[in-house]
Amino acid sequence: MESGRILGQNHIIKHFENAIKMGKISHAYIINGEAGSGKMKLAVHFAKALQCEANNPDTSDGNMQFDFGEGTGGKKEITGVACGHCKSCHQTDSGNQPDIKYVTHEKSGIGVDEIRDQINNDIDIKPYSSRYKIYIVPDSEKMTVQAQNALLKTIEEPPEYAIIILLTTNADMFLQTILSRCVLLNIRPVKEETIRNQLMSEYGIGNYEANVAAVFANGNPGKAIKLATSEDFKELKQQVVGTLLSLEKGGMDIITQRVKEAGSFKNQIDDYFGLMQTWFRDVLLYKATGDTEKLIFQDDYHEIVEMSEKISYFHINIILKSIDQAWNRIKSNVNFDITMEVLFLSIKERIKK
């Protein structure tokens, strides 16, 4: 199975490849992970390999040229990897493989009608041209209980050629009876270095922006790409840095202005607080090590160095705790302006003039 753009999920890729090689394919899978973590890519790569003529020589059209391994007795050695060249692989790449179905929904949830119309009433029709008939269900955590019960009947007694792949951000939303009949595969966080390298090599993102995005993605490549290419995130980062640098010399007029400006980023408040935490962790890191190479805000290292000389270890820790407290208060719907004003005052008081 081709895995070029799937980062850090070798445990899932190997599981799929071994299942194909050993002929032990389950009728139902759950791929569980955050939005942007690569669930759809994994599902499509698995479906592509399942339908690939190189993995199903008995169903090929006879035009494929197969490489026969030594000692196979004339039988094609199944690798579990999509060849990328057969008709089925090309169809999958173009989104036109007739036996790979994508379940869609227009409402906020997936109701029983969508499951019946797109899976249950279709699944008894045999595959058009491939060995399997595969259903990929994005946002499957949005299935209602009635929809899950409708799907359960199909999962319990599926046709031998049917495979259902549920993609979800929260596997806990499924009925236990669904979970017990599916192979559950959890996506793992990807290393920051791996994400940073991808951003720089595949998307042409500069080292500084790639570094910041990789840290804030928390192991999620899709989120990192979105952050690194988002003008809104760049604006937010500039706003946070500007705010922190202005607090030292500014009076209440500056604090009032910065609180007002912060209010325009309420929809990104988690990233706002996260950037503040990362800034002061950089200050702490430099103060402890004197090493600028490990800083996240490397473009602002002069300011980091200068602030580290004006603030004690004790006060850095107090500031980090204050940020956590403010973050929790906002989540608890405490007044935004008052919370931010208290936070900015706390930071200002602990930076030496």
For CATH, the homologous superfamily of the largest domain is named as P-loop containing nucleotide triphosphate hydrolases
Strand and helix order: HEHHEHEHEHEHHHHHHHHH
Helicity level? 40-55%
Q: Report the biggest beta sheet as strand number plus sense, adding barrel if it closes.
A: 5 strands, parallel
Question: How many strand elements?
Answer: 5
Based on Cα principal axes, name the global outline.
elongated
Major β-sheet strand ordering: 2-3-4-1-5
Instruction: Tell me, rounded to a whole number, the average pLDDT.
Output: 89
- Which spans of ≥5 residues are poorly predicted at pLDDT below 50? 60-74
CATH T-level fold name of the largest domain: Rossmann fold
Number of helices: 15
Share in β-strands: 5-15%
Radius of gyration equals 26 Å
3D architecture notes:
This protein is elongated. β3 (133-137), α5 (145-156) and β4 (162-168) form a beta-alpha-beta unit. It has helices at residues 10-22, 39-51, 87-94, 112-120, 145-156, 176-179, 192-203, 207-216, 221-228, 231-247, 252-263, 269-289, 301-308, 313-331, 336-350; strands spanning 28-32, 100-102, 133-137, 162-168, 183-186. It has two domains: 10-186, P-loop containing nucleotide triphosphate hydrolases (Rossmann fold), CATH 3.40.50.300; 230-350, Up-down Bundle (Zinc Finger, Delta Prime, domain 3). The chain has 15 helices and five strands. The termini are far apart. It is 51% helix and 7% strand. Mean pLDDT is 89; it is low at 60-74. With 353 residues, it is of the alpha/beta class. Strands 2-3-4-1-5 form a five-stranded parallel sheet, covered by helices on one side.
